[in-house]
Amino acid sequence: MIRLVSAWVLVNGLLMGPSWLSAAVTHAPTPPWLSIEAALIVGGMALTPPRWWSRGLARILAGVVVLFALTALADLVMQVSLGRPLNLSLDLYLVTAVYDLAVGNSGLARTLFGFGAIAVSFALSAFVIAWLLTPAAPNRKKTLTGLVPRFGGGLIVAGLGLVLIGRGVDPVRERVVTPVISLVLGQAEQFQATAKEREVFAVELERPGGFADQPGLLSKLRGRNVVATYIESYGMAALEDPEFAATIRARLDTTAARIEGAGLHMATGELASPTRGGQSWYAHGTMLTGLWLENQLRYDLLIASDRETLVDDFRRAGYRTATVMPAITTAWPEALRIGYDDVYTRPSIPYAGPPLYWVTIPDQFTWSFLGEVVREAEAPLFVEAAMVSSHAPWTPVLPLVDWDSVGDGAIFDPHREDGYPPEELWWDVQALRDGYTRSLDYSLQVMAEFAERFLDESTLLIVLGDHQAAPWVTGASDPDVPVHVIASDPVLLEPFFEWGFLSGAFPDPKNSPPRMDEFREWFVGAFSDGTPGSATLPTKEGA
After folding, report:
1. 3-state DSSP call for residue 531?
2. Which of 45, 70, 227, 399 has the fewest beta carbons closer than 10 A?
């Protein structure tokens, strides 16, 4: 009897644990208590006779329970970090990303220890559950022997009864759930949706995607450089959450004043990103292609296709193209597919300063390097760049140094170990919020000083967020990000005003923001002469 009660407590705890943890993280008021599957599993094994196959059945059920717990925990991580459920048919590749993130924040030794501890704990749980569920030989004490099947039968009857009763009774429905069935059905629905998504997106890819017959392609830019830069995790929550806004709105007020004082002009709007909390490449790809890339399937299908991008539009208009991505530390075959003329990633950026946890290069150095790339260009240049100082876990936040002393970045070496260790920071949401605010304040300040120092008549600067920060930190449910456009020539901002942007550093709060996949077609049409045309040469070979 004690074994069965212990088995039920442990199985119910593993099946309901992710729900309890989710309620704690999201501050849900009434988390469910009981798993119907736990009652059915333990009750069923209590009625199972001790045969040669019963031990194997117990092991299989124990494995199912542990596998569910792991999957449900992964789903919870996806919900609080990316604002969406786990999709097993698409997200298994993220295992390596989680490993890289852990190593980048905690080091190899701690990461291996952590992963090992998790594996051992779940393996031990599976062993204990299998032992508790395995039917024991008949007890000679008839009283106890009779209690075992009665207890098991009671659990089964109770489980089935709660299923039937719970359909019409709200309190029961709120406290008694079927987590395993819900997860399986949810993943089955996602699998079907993913299969359909493949067909739908394949049709989208077949549509013409270039501007080969666009009259006066990008001619209204009059050969000016265009620098499109993403500030990591810069979402509208930074302007709308009172705690963040107290700092960020003040910084944007200062930015607008400095921009105006430098003889520059600024306009601001919003765009809806296809992602939240991470996976920035979805936003980058969406902006470049005009296709909504909200999952890895769409992104992979795009990369495997010949679909043209904004990079091709600029090249066709006579521009040289480049990308500056300091967070990319390994081979990046996607850059070859997209077709940039020049690719600058961490290995090829001449930075001699320290890595700062997940921030490979501080923004001030990246902006300084970007300014030199633009300054040395011998032809009109289109650059896509990313600034990563505001990347989670938002530590350390560096002070600004004199721009003339940035050099190769060695000046930042004294700050190598500044800030909270990330392994401590991740568990303190308030510390994360404080770090997010300070890092974003730093990123915006550096952006403003770059514009003052480097921006001239020859360059149009577009600065936008790639996505909102993790819902766990911001609590934000919408995907909207700010977009700032800065130029010396006010004529370059007129199309943005027509698109709903406002003068200054803040977007119109009354506007419903367009999606990022609308940007490419709008931008090409707005800065080209004549009526936008449709593509007749959709592949790069035809460029």
Report:
1. coil
2. 399
